[in-house]
Amino acid sequence: MQEDKLYEYAVVRLVPKVEREEFFNIGLVMFSKKEKYIRIQFHVCHEKFTLLQSKMDFEDIAQNVDSFQKVANGEKNAGEIAQLDIPERFRWLTAVRSSVVQTSRPHPGKTKNLDQTFERLFEELVK
Known about the structure:
Blueprint: E1 5-14, E2 24-32, E3 37-42, H1 46-52, H2 58-73, H3 86-93, E4 101-103, E5 107-111, H4 114-125
Antiparallel strand pairs: 1-2, 1-4, 1-5, 2-3
């Protein structure tokens, strides 16, 4: 019988006008320390972006999302933070910040299959 795996996840949000604190979900990041697992995925709905955006350029958001993804994946060209171990990268990604790309607080869980759980959470919370 397969053992439950502990994980944490956070929802990635786009906050077009930080001072108004209005946001919509654009991604999910999930990690499991014991399994040495981190996964991040994004879906930026262009219609929602058009409705809520101020003077932001969609390409600027795409660059921010790309940077988040590179850090999560530990890519060599993504700077010093990307070279940290998985738990430290997750903590950096989920740190409280007042920028247009933010995350929720991390939420814990248990699962037998990390990828299936990621897919379910992504479908429920982002898409």
